[in-house]
Structure formats: C-alpha cells, structure tokens
Write the structure tokens for this entry.
Amino acid sequence: MKALITGITGFAGSHLAELLLEENIEVFGTMRPRSPMENLTSGVQKQINLVECELRDNVAVRHTIKTVKPDAVFHLAAQSFVPTSWGSPEDTIMNNIICQLNIFEAVKDTGLTDTKIQIACSSEEYGMVYENEVPIRETNPLRPLSPYAVSKVSQDMMGYQYFMSYGLNVIRTRAFNHTGPRRGEIFVASTFAKQIASIEKGIQEPSIKVGNLGAKRDFTDVRDTVRAYYMSVLKAEPGEVYNIATNKTITIQELLDRLLALTDKDIEVKTDPARLRPSDVPILLGNYDRLRDRVGWEPRIPFDKTLEDLLNYWRERV
Ligand code: GDD
C-alpha cells in the first residue's frame, strides 16, 4: 500500500507515519516549507517521502496526487485549535474546507477509483450536546459552537457528498479529543503538562494558568487514535462516519488533578480570562460501537499512561 498523509509533520500525522512504517507501508507526506520538523525523528525522516505541497493550491495538490497515486490518503492537515478560529474564522474555514476540496477534486480527476480517503472530522461537530444525549452516537444532531466546528461539519458533509455524487471512497472519522507526546502546547493537557514541567525546572512560578475547568471531554491516546485511522482505511465502509472515542468522560478539573498528582511540587491554580472562550462545548462523551463492530478497534492505552508520557515529554523539553 502507498499512503499519503497530509499534515505528516503534525501531532497525529507523525504518530500515524510511525505506525504505517511498522506495517511496511510506503509513506508519503505533504508539508509546507515552513513546517516544523521536530515531530519526525531522523529515523522516520529517512524512511518517508516528503512532498512540498501547499494544500490550498489546487494545481500543487493535483500534481502531488497524480505523481504519488496513493492507495490511501489520510487527510489530517488542518487548522485544529478552536480558539484560533474565533480570532480568524475566515482563515480556519477557508483552510479546512478548500484544502479538502482540492484533494477530493484531484483524486476524482486523476481517476483513482480505488483510493480510500480518510478525513479527520471531529467530535466538536456535535457541539451543543445535552446530558440525555450521551454517550453520543454518530446519529446525534450536529450543533457546532465555533467556526472551527463549522469547518469540520463542512468537511464531513463534503465527504458524504463526494461519496454520493462520484463514489469517492471517503471514510469520515469523528475523533474525540486525543493527546499524548508531541501534542502542541496550546491544547489543554499539553499546556498544563508543559507548565508543570516548567515549574519543576524552576523557570515558572508555582502557579498554573487555566481556562474553563468545568467542561467534560472524552480523551483517547493519540497512538490509539491513529490506529483507528489506519484500521478504518482497511476495513470501514466508504461513505460512512465513525466516532473514535472511549465511552468515558472526565472534567478538565479532573484532568488537571491527575496531572498535578504526578508532581511533588505544590502548585496554585489560577484562572486566566484569556483562556475562556465565547462558548465552550459543555460535554463530549462518545459511543464507539460502530467502529468496534465494523473494524474491530478498541482503545488500548489507559489515560494515566497517556498523561505520564505527555508530562515526561515536556520534562525532556523545557
Ligand atoms: N486549550 C486550553 N487551554 N483549553 C483549556 C484550558 C487551557 O488552558 N483550560 C481549560 N480548557 C478547556 C477548554 O475550554 C475546552 O473545554 C477543553 O479544555 C479542551 O480544550 P482543547 O484542548 O483546546 O481542545 P478542544 O476540545 O477545544 O478541541 C480539541 O478536540 C477536538 C475534538 O473534540 C482539538 O484537538 C480539536 O482539533 C479536535 O477536533
């Protein structure tokens, strides 16, 4: 199998590249000249084929797809941070929708009728979820609460439309929150872990800045998430949509407490108003029966192990 990963230098992309190499798959990945490379170890960099491609440029995307002729595309590249989408909604919406459109058009026009395209949709699409709707099934109404979520609803619906209109083998995965080593420092578990590591090193006062601790989220380890992406491409039904979740939820307060339990430092917790959002998704708790029944995926890595690995990742870096 020849696989093309968009966003290979990113958090999930780098973990997926490692998994596919272990499976002896030929890996190609798109990057931009300014993409930071530190998520890809030198060993991985030697084994993959990096292609410079600006996904907003339909000519560049067409050229990449025509040249690589992938059997599978994992479309992970995106503006993925919810708060950024409040600041520049146009950029998030343009970027996330147009890049995917360019990929779909290129696969269609190149005539790659057998190519599978996994698209990284999101639990954020469910948005305003009521307590009586959890655990959330794929059939739940989508009530997006941020420009980012709107962009993901659009990607999701575009996946459905290209499957129905042209028979493109699109597999829509709605990943719930995922974290682990290499997670960007702006996301919740990573910003907390990095601050704890900085406090341990004495480069930050023993005070941690936080946002809304009342939100509830369903966290998967990123290494389980990318395994779900891979298994979906092998076994999921094109046109269909699948939750990637654990069927468990924790409050952000609990997440913070579990990280704080991993350090012997005494740390004060301070709300930073800049970390609060115009609206926050109150609860995400996903039912993943469809994915388990169809592809045989189950989460494997316990969340405490994920948090420990994440904190150790930051301890080695700050
Ligand atoms: N980032 C951040 N920083 N979030 C905080 C903080 C903080 O200091 N304090 C509390 N939170 C809360 C947020 O308000 C939110 O309720 C929750 O922690 C998770 O925030 P993020 O880690 O930024 O992730 P997200 O839930 O907004 O979105 C992530 O998950 C989606 C899937 O559900 C991203 O990975 C998205 O790309 C992904 O689609």
